[in-house]
TrEMBL record:
Key word Hydrolase present: no
SMART domains: DeoRC, HTH_DEOR
Protein keywords: DNA-binding, Transcription, Transcription regulation
Organism: Aquibacillus halophilus
Pfam families from the UniProt entry: DeoRC (PF00455), HTH_DeoR (PF08220)
GO molecular function: DNA binding; DNA-binding transcription factor activity
Coiled coil ranges: none
Domain HTH deoR-type intervals: 3-58
Protein name: DeoR family transcriptional regulator
Signal peptide: none
Length: 254
């Protein structure tokens, strides 16, 4: 991971959790504590956080701010593409699936083969990507446009999902906490993802290793509603064991 990308992710995690210790960031990114201290010093100079004894605290004015899509597109790109390719392997001809408005779902849409499936989504980027694949039937929710995520949210988007039932939902999130479940930084995105979980047989959570142990602003669901977790190869062994103890099927990119 590049230095700038790591620092961007530190700010993202910090804004979600409001405070974090140097030792925890060191474990998340597999770098030394001294490296993390240099990152925090740079980010404090840029007024993106405030350092505290042994860690840092957020200076974000709002817990529910959503990062612009253009920023999320360049964060953990390698991991997201690998996870997306692994997710595509779970899709079979004839499936009816949901893709959320995450960048990982967009990468998944790009990688989907042109086969007879149905895709239900609230993502404009996913709709545009699949428009050239004529064998794929695409259904968009409609609703209020959220420019940060290029997606539809709000009551209309949520209620439109009540008309459907799908086999599989592929959903990303801002954090997965073993005890507190999965969560999102934006409440509107959390509400529509809750609805997506309600109308599917199988839930696949697509999440990179830096999001484990994170609890974001808006809770999505408990872990007992999740069937599969797709993640990258940098997941810690301890986290793997905890997921197995929760009877979750872990799909890890090799």
């Amino acid at each position: 991971m590049l230095v700038g990308e790591r620092q961007h992710k530190i700010v993202e995690i910090l804004n979600e959790r409001k405070s974090i210790r140097v030792s925890e960031l060191s474990n998340i990114f597999s770098v030394t504590e001294e490296t993390i201290r240099r990152d925090l010093e740079k980010l404090e100079k840029d007024k993106k956080l405030s350092r505290s004894h042994g860690g840092a605290i957020s200076v974000s004015p709002s817990e529910s701010l959503e990062l612009p899509y253009s920023e999320r597109e360049i964060t953990n790109v390698k991991e997201k593409k690998e996870i997306a390719l692994e997710a595509v392997k779970q899709v079979n001809e004839g499936d009816k699936i949901i893709l959320d408005a995450s960048t990982t779902a967009w990468y998944m849409a790009k990688a989907l083969p042109n086969i007879p499936i149905t895709v239900l989504t609230n993502s404009i980027k996913v709709v545009m990507e699949l428009s050239a694949k004529k064998e794929i039937a695409v259904i968009s929710t409609g609703g209020i446009l959220a420019p940060e995520s290029l997606s539809y949210v709000g009551p209309l988007a949520e209620s439109s999902l009540d008309s459907y039932h799908v086999n599989k939902a592929f959903i990303s999130c801002k954090g997965l906490h073993i005890e507190r479940g999965i969560s999102e930084s934006n409440e509107q995105q959390a509400r529509i993802k809750k609805k997506m979980i309600d109308i599917t047989d199988l839930v696949y959570i697509m999440i990179d290793h830096t999001k484990f142990g994170v609890q974001a602003f808006s809770r999505l669901s408990s872990l007992d509603k999740i069937d599969h977790v797709i993640t990258d190869s940098q997941i810690k062994p301890g986290i793997m064991q905890q997921l197995e103890e929760k009877s979750l099927n872990l799909i890890k990119v090799n």
